[in-house]
Fold this sequence. Notes:
It is a single chain. It is globular and about 70 Å long. Among the domains are: 2-116, no CATH class; 129-164 and 253-289, no CATH class; 175-244, no CATH class; 452-556, no CATH class. The strands form three sheets. Strands 7, 8, 9, 10, 11, 12 and 13 form a seven-stranded mixed β-sheet that branches. The protein has a four-stranded mixed β-sheet with strand order 1-2-4-3. By secondary structure, it is an alpha+beta fold. It has helices at residues 6-21, 37-43, 56-71, 96-115, 127-145, 148-157, 165-171, 182-195, 200-217, 220-232, 236-244, 254-261, 272-292, 294-311, 319-330, 339-355, 361-364, 369-374, 382-392, 395-402, 405-411, 436-446, 478-492, and strands at residues 2-3, 30-35, 78-81, 86-91, 415-421, 426-433, 452-455, 465-470, 496-505, 511-512, 525-535, 538-546, 554-556.
Amino acid sequence: MELIDQHTKSIMEGCKERAREHGLRFDDETLEYIVTNRDILELTPKNMIPTMYDYWVHDVEVLQEKGRYELYPNNPYETVINTRPAVSYYNDNNPDWLNVMIFYHVLGHIDFFQNNIFFKNTWNFDFTGQALSDKRLIAHLRSKHGRWVDYVIEFCRGIDNLVGYYRELNSTFSPEMHSFSERLDYFFDVFLQQVRQVTIHDYIGFIERYNGLVREHGPGGEQIFFGEIGQKFAEFEALFRESSGQKRVQKQDLLEFLLERSPFLNKNKNKWMKSIIHVIRNTSLYFQPQIRTKIMNEGWASYWHEKLFLLDDRIKGHEVDFARVNAGVTAMPRVGLNPYALGMRLFFYIEDMANKGRLTYDYDRLRDERARQNYNTHLNEGQQAIFSVRENFNDYVFISTFVDQDFMKLNKLFVVGRHLDQQRMVWQYYVKSRKVQDYRHMLFDALYHPPHIVIDEAQSSNSTLYLKHVFEGKPLVRDYISNTMLGLEFLWGGPIKLETTEVFRKESGQPDREKPSGHDESEEYGYRRVLYSMDDHTLSKVTLSAEDDDDGLSEDY
């Protein structure tokens, strides 16, 4: 691995100048390295951070990547990591014209990293330097405590997806940065979610009502909104006044709770483990925004590499080569999801809609098909619109807002189903749905969404930790429950209880991983609440309640 030569660096600097002319914003300093395929295979398990701590699973993943490469050899074009300065890696056999395209793609990523609000926690420090410090710390602890260091790492990484990312993100904003009143915060954060426990549909309805009143009446819209709330919920004002005199209890994620409350970790002889937990938690928090903006990030980079490459005079004579490479990267598959393709097309769609004035209430309320096709106010605000989206959205909001029936029709999208041909024993694919609701649901299923686990302190004690899984339609993966709870038992120093919901076949009563979206309609599924217990390295399960099944069955594992 070595820095790119001066000739290639001059190409990159030229790309920076052209990118800034079109509105992209990023730091002047960047580092570019030339790497071999072997280097990439070895860096991939560490998320391309060469200074990340050593861990035996990384070595296993390197062997897996090498085996995969022998079967399916390929040359990755680039990889860029979000740090200060931004670091990117390039294959050692890229020609100059391809580097022009790749550099524009990388600059799109860097612009996204350094301007999207969900990356705010990552803007102010050099993660590669922090990772090097963490690596030295863990190496020092490993020299003193041996394999126990790897046990702690493994147990923590089993739950590092449960970090409180959004709470940490919110803490970086000062009160002056938002104008929401304390009454509004209490209504949406506490009253609807904890007191009334309304459905998601009703919750979104209240948000839309509030936004509509503010758009129509300005700042006075909030007063009108709470006038309506007072009529609907007579107890709201009394509860709000009561809560305003109380100190809000700051919720903790599971790793934080263990750090503060674990009897085992707070023993003097075990406090060294806390340093490792801090490293695992902070590393997870750093990569959370990248996981939650995958479609937008790749789409934004693909949008700019296509737009800027075709305007660059340095690539004359290679237009056909570009078309071939670009098609391989941004082709929209009929089966499956390509984040590059979907994200890029959505940004082009938003730009076109904003230029024609279609991101407005007047257009949205039109129901005549011909009127919608001909609607064009020549507003020409496409560039402002996509930069605003790049700054303020994540994948979920991006898809919820802009994947509509018009977008599906424009790109000829549909949801694919499949069934097994029993005679030939092959899968047959068919168009299952062309409705935007079904397509959105398919996209949401593909997004990163870790389980919502809360700590029930009322049922916990100094010896037992009681956890509740807030069921959101997807059960926990049963294959991971045993090992994860075993690790929690070690970190807590006592029994662990986990309350969750399982899907089961009513006919057989056997649990299933989830209710299949294309299952046989004659096969009925139900849900049951179960309690897993890990005590003295032994896992057991008891049924608490179930739909058509409440016999309190218990199993031992």
